[in-house]
């Protein structure tokens, strides 16, 4: 049977994704903003912000770019802090940052339990927002809270049909993709089968996002994920760095760090199936790209599109 590309074509998203590697500049001279760390992000103890707050400093980088992508003078932004155990504190940090960028119309979405989320009438808020921002914390909290919900379905429908902007940082960025890493730190990443993955929120598929990538030495854990399913592409984003994804597959790098792209299409051999015996991982013929500000990358569409 001949493949009918037109019949099986998936819709091209009208929305834009801003996928941030964590610790984006929030102003006050701070490129190391506080973040909660979930299982997938707890390679090191929780950092504390020891820098003095300077109310006159403005975040000129990724957050400013995020706002500009809405093409609105005063966009309505919903900040989703459900990944964080300190939702109010996290929201206050972003409220201050967005205030410096002249954003006044800011909402806060935070859920502690799935039942609380299911009982929350969010339809009007989702329909009225120009942009959404998912903060850091624990990416598994986001998928367990919102997976299969009407809220997530509505958000995806708007992403496909409307020119909205959806951003995620740290755990919020990791949750946007599928597959999604949720456990396996740098002490364990060399052992086959030590990296745990699940289905993310699926705003992009066959792409695994990892954050704090260079700072926390996460190359090997991403390589393991790609070896388990070479259909997927691994994108590791360094801190204060982001990729902007348009049309679902056109990526552009912004920010101050490097983005590492790992492709496994040409893997010739690996021992990834030999898990459980404490073996060190072996993978041959990975392909790696290092990209920086201004670089562009076309995310491969390997699986035939389907409805």
Helix content: 10-25%
Biggest sheet statistics: 8 strands, mixed
Could you tell me the mean pLDDT?
87
- Under the CATH scheme, the architecture is 3-Layer(aba) Sandwich
Q: Which sequence of SSEs, written as H and E, runs from N to C?
A: HEHEHEHHEHHEHEEEEEHEEEEEEEE
Number of strands: 18
The side-by-side strand order for the widest beta sheet comes to 3-2-4-5-1-12-13-18
* CATH homologous superfamily title: Class I glutamine amidotransferase (GATase) domain
Count of separate DSSP helical elements: 9
Class inferred from helices and paired strands: alpha/beta
**Under the CATH scheme, which class?**
Alpha Beta
CATH fold assignment:
Rossmann fold
Percent in strands = 15-25%
The gross shape turns out to be globular
The whole-angstrom Rg is: 19 Å
Distance between the termini: 18 Å
Low-confidence stretches: 1-5, 31-40, 42-56
Number of domains: 1
Strand-helix topology:
Blueprint: H1 5-8, E1 16-20, H2 62-69, E2 77-80, H3 87-100, E3 106-109, H4 114-118, H5 123-128, E4 131-134, H6 139-146, H7 150-161, E5 165-169, H8 171-174, E6 177-178, E7 180-183, E8 196-198, E9 204-205, E10 207-211, H9 219-228, E11 233-237, E12 241-246, E13 250-255, E14 259-263, E15 269-270, E16 283-284, E17 287-291, E18 296-298
Parallel strand pairs: 1-5, 2-3, 2-4, 4-5, 6-9, 10-11
Antiparallel strand pairs: 1-12, 7-8, 11-14, 12-13, 13-18, 14-17, 15-16
Short note summarizing the structure:
It is built from nine helices and 18 strands. With 307 residues, the protein is α/β, with parallel strands linked by helices.
């Amino acid at each position: 049977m001949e493949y009918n590309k037109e019949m099986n074509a998936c819709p091209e998203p009208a929305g834009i994704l801003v996928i941030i590697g964590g610790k984006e500049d929030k102003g006050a001279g701070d490129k190391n903003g506080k973040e909660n760390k979930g299982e997938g992000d707890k390679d090191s103890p929780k950092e504390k912000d020891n820098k003095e707050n300077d109310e006159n400093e403005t975040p000129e980088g990724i957050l400013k770019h995020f706002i500009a992508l809405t093409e609105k003078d005063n966009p309505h932004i919903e900040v989703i802090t459900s990944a964080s155990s300190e939702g109010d504190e996290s929201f206050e940090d972003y409220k201050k940052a967005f205030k410096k960028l002249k954003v006044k119309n800011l909402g806060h979405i935070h859920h502690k339990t799935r039942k609380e989320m299911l009982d929350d009438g969010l339809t009007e808020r989702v329909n009225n927002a120009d942009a959404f921002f998912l903060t850091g914390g624990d990416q598994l909290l986001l998928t367990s809270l919102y997976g299969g919900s009407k809220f997530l379905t509505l958000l995806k429908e708007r992403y496909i049909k409307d020119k909205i902007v959806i951003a995620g940082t740290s755990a919020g960025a990791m949750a946007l993709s599928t597959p999604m890493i949720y456990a396996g730190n740098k002490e364990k990443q060399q052992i086959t089968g030590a990296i745990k993955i699940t289905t993310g929120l699926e705003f992009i598929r066959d792409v695994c996002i990892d954050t704090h990538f260079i700072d926390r030495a996460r190359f090997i854990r991403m390589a393991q994920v790609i070896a388990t399913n070479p259909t997927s592409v691994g994108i590791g984003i360094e801190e204060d760095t982001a990729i902007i994804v348009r049309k679902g597959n056109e990526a552009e790098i912004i920010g101050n760090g490097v983005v590492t792209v790992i492709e496994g299409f040409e893997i010739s051999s690996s021992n990834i199936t030999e898990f459980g015996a404490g073996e060190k991982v072996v993978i041959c013929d990975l392909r790696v790209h290092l990209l920086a500000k201004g670089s562009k990358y076309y995310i491969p569409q390997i699986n035939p599109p389907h409805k």
